[in-house]
TrEMBL record:
<feature type="binding site">
    <location>
        <position position="103"/>
    </location>
    <ligand>
        <name>Mn(2+)</name>
    </ligand>
</feature>
<feature type="binding site">
    <location>
        <position position="109"/>
    </location>
    <ligand>
        <name>Mn(2+)</name>
    </ligand>
</feature>
<keyword id="KW-0052">Apoplast</keyword>
<protein>
    <recommendedName>
        <fullName>Germin-like protein</fullName>
    </recommendedName>
</protein>
<dbReference type="InterPro" id="IPR006045">
    <property type="entry name" value="Cupin_1"/>
</dbReference>
<comment type="similarity">
    <text>Belongs to the germin family.</text>
</comment>
<dbReference type="GO" id="GO:0030145">
    <property type="term" value="F:manganese ion binding"/>
</dbReference>
<feature type="binding site">
    <location>
        <position position="109"/>
    </location>
    <ligand>
        <name>oxalate</name>
    </ligand>
</feature>
<dbReference type="InterPro" id="IPR014710">
    <property type="entry name" value="RmlC-like_jellyroll"/>
</dbReference>
<feature type="disulfide bond">
    <location>
        <begin position="26"/>
        <end position="41"/>
    </location>
</feature>
<dbReference type="InterPro" id="IPR011051">
    <property type="entry name" value="RmlC_Cupin_sf"/>
</dbReference>
<keyword id="KW-0464">Manganese</keyword>
<feature type="binding site">
    <location>
        <position position="148"/>
    </location>
    <ligand>
        <name>Mn(2+)</name>
    </ligand>
</feature>
<keyword id="KW-0964">Secreted</keyword>
<keyword id="KW-1015">Disulfide bond</keyword>
<dbReference type="InterPro" id="IPR001929">
    <property type="entry name" value="Germin"/>
</dbReference>
<keyword id="KW-0732">Signal</keyword>
Length: 210
């Protein structure tokens, strides 16, 4: 019994030592190409406090686009100190009648609504939809890699902040993925069952070709 406990305890310690970083931080060195784990570390003697600071999330993003939304924020390219730390923070602005179109990231996301009323939701891999009207102060989580969206259903602009557990979560918007590319429309029809004419129309809206 004691031995078992000891072994369990020891494997716990080994795991946590295995995951413990050997550096306090790894500020992104933009002069070297990024790899799967992120950027290389900037020489610590050159690191300054400003490498850990991002300003401007008090300013509304530019919502002049098809979906009337903006996402702006602090991620590895705008806040080098986030590199290697597994998190990022964005501001979402959604105008009246607008939406953050359905999209995925490589990671999970948590949202907090600050102003307005939105319907937020995600779709699981067995095609169940989980969605709800959220108001100021409400928090919702979107599990990693699942398709999700936010729709402004109020009469005022909506403001929310989201945090994701990657310094570069990636944004893959389904409509743009399908209709902003150069895949022949006949192939898009085959892989979606959407009429080729409709595909061509959507490609012209989203900037795709062929
Ligand atoms: C980091 O910068 C210091 C001071 O300029 C220099 O002495 C040191 O060699 C640098 N380290 C690396 C790994 O480049
Ligand atoms: C907002 O974005 C639109 C479309 O990209 C652009 O035409 C416009 O100049 C931008 N407005 C500002 C204030 O940057």
């Amino acid at each position: 019994m004691i031995l078992k406990l000891f072994i369990a305890f020891w494997s716990l310690i080994s795991v946590s030592y295995g995951q413990t970083s050997v550096v306090d931080f790894c500020v992104a060195d933009y002069t070297i190409a990024k790899g799967p784990a992120g950027y290389s570390c900037k020489n610590a003697s050159k690191v300054t406090t400003d490498d850990f600071i991002f300003s401007g999330l008090d300013v509304k993003g530019n919502t002049s686009n098809l979906f009337k939304f903006a996402a702006s924020g602090a991620y590895d390219l705008t806040l080098p100190g986030l590199n290697g730390l597994g998190l990022s923070l964005f501001r979402l602005d959604i105008d009246v009648g607008g939406a953050v179109p359905i999209h995925t990231h490589r990671v999970s996301e948590v949202i907090i609504v600050m102003e307005g009323t939105i319907i937020a939701g995600f779709i699981s891999s067995d095609n169940a939809a989980y969605f709800k009207t959220l108001n100021k102060g409400d928090v919702m989580v979107f599990p990693q890699a699942l398709l999700h969206f936010q729709v402004n259903v109020g009469n005022t602009p909506a403001l929310a902040f989201v945090s994701l557990n990657s310094p570069n979560p990636g944004f893959q918007f389904t409509s743009y993925s399908l209709f902003a590319n150069n895949l022949p429309s006949s192939i898009v029809e085959k892989i979606t069952l959407i009429d080729e004419d409709q595909v061509k129309k959507l490609k012209s809206i989203f900037g795709g070709t062929n």
